[in-house]
Amino acid sequence: MESTVWLASRSLPRPGVGCCNLLSRVRRSGGRLKPCGNGRKVVVCVSGTEGKTKVVIVGGGVGGLAVGGRLAKEGYDVHILEKNSHVGGRLQSLEVEAAVGVGGKSDDPGGQECFRFDTGPSLLLLPQKYRDAFTAMGEDMDDYVTLKKVEPAAYRVFFGEDEGVQSLDLLYDVQKMCLQLEQVEEGAGGAFLRFLANAKEALDKGTASFIERDFKSFWDYADVPRLLPLLKHLSPIELLGQHHSTMRNYFKNPKLQAMFTFQDLYVGLTPYNAPGVFSLLAATELTDGVWYPVGGFAKVRDGLAQAAQKVGATITTKATVKRIDHANGQVQGVTLEDGTFMRANIVVANADLPYVYNSLLGSKVKTQASKLLSSKYSASVIAFQWALSSRLERLSHHNVFLSNCYEESWHRATDASTILERPNFYVHAPSRTDSTVCPLGTDAITVLLPVAHLGEGFSIGSASDDKQIVEAARERVISSLVRSGIGDISSMILSEVVYSPPTWQDSYNLQYGAAFGLAHNLLQLAYFRPDVAEPSIKGLYFAGASTRPGNGVPLVLMGAKVTTNRILEENYPFLSGN
Asked: What global pTM score does this model have?
């Protein structure tokens, strides 16, 4: 049975403008569009789901789940395929059982008799972007995830020196923060206020104009009428210049310069090759706050998956895609490792893009494949998850340990001999915010030590090589903790789980084991980062950290919206079945 809906006496506006809600209703009913002889358009609604456009998403990471949920909500027939036993990509939590007699029960009713570690993302920034992802699926994030603000400081920064100021907190309280900075450098309080105001403006204006925007051409990116209002408020030199040099315009003290540039570590850069625009990271931490999902980041993973399934997406784990099939410039579907072929109108690749181009698409796109292999990549990471028998009282929730040889410390270590005595590293101790992390009186900490990726001459050719680098990293971290007044934890370690560069490569198909994917240097930002669609293969789209706008969960969620909107614009319902 068919029914027609009269739209207008003129042609249908482009999707994404005035007709999105109507198109969504049409998709959900399996509807199609076809022209009338008089130039009008009619919607032919057919019952059943046989008319739906089929979408296969390769990879159930954050981007895949977010795009899948959005498209399922719009009425598409969505199938998410994940090679691992859990979705979420790098967004994972690991639980290790506590030994008998270790610690006491948590004072929280939901307390754990185990140690929990967030092995991927550990900072929850821009919480509204998480909420937006759930809202787009018609869900309320609060039904899935409980957020708790990390207080009273976003971070504690330890400086690798035995004299002078040994640590400072990044406080939300602006007045207290200014007083703390003034004790280090006269006038630093006022400089901090200027820095914060400029960084906040860059964040507010830059998010809408650059981060969340879908650039389809260079001229769309270099749109003068759009840029001129921005340049009245934001200095191009400050945004595009070297981040470290930018901070010298605010602070003379090297410790303060370091305190507001170490965030470049999150995107695999250094203050000496990152553009000043990354000041926005500090801005969001101090204005929107740093948050934590109670129960660990797996709660975010599971919430996104459940919300996507609720609106109709199908998720299959342990399903490895061997090939994305395409012919005559049109995607056909995917072939699984077991030989199963899944036909699809649209394929969204959520895997790391270099892996997609070099392993899943074949030789017809070898130019882009070669280009990606020669791109710049972020650092890799040696990660230690340590269950400790005692609580480390001097640690805050988020802790950054900076070297006393600051500039040298950003040179990525390639073997045991090149790891500095006091390297830069990050320590996550979430039990300060969430008492369900570990038994009372104990601690569960994750340490991230940046190192070279496998394409930078990282010295690993055997298990013994890997063991030597990990042992050197462990020794340097423990030694630095002792010298910083944290204590000697060597006798406190009850269990240890280690991730090294090969782990990131093997577990998540990350090129060269670069833990943060493609780097975010100037020529790999915004329009210059890989597009969300492959122009030579109709129906093939991308989501995740290696496409626009970049890595980090909030950016990936913003990118999921960009990818979804592009799909909605380019694929009318009448394409289903073709």
From this structure: 0.84
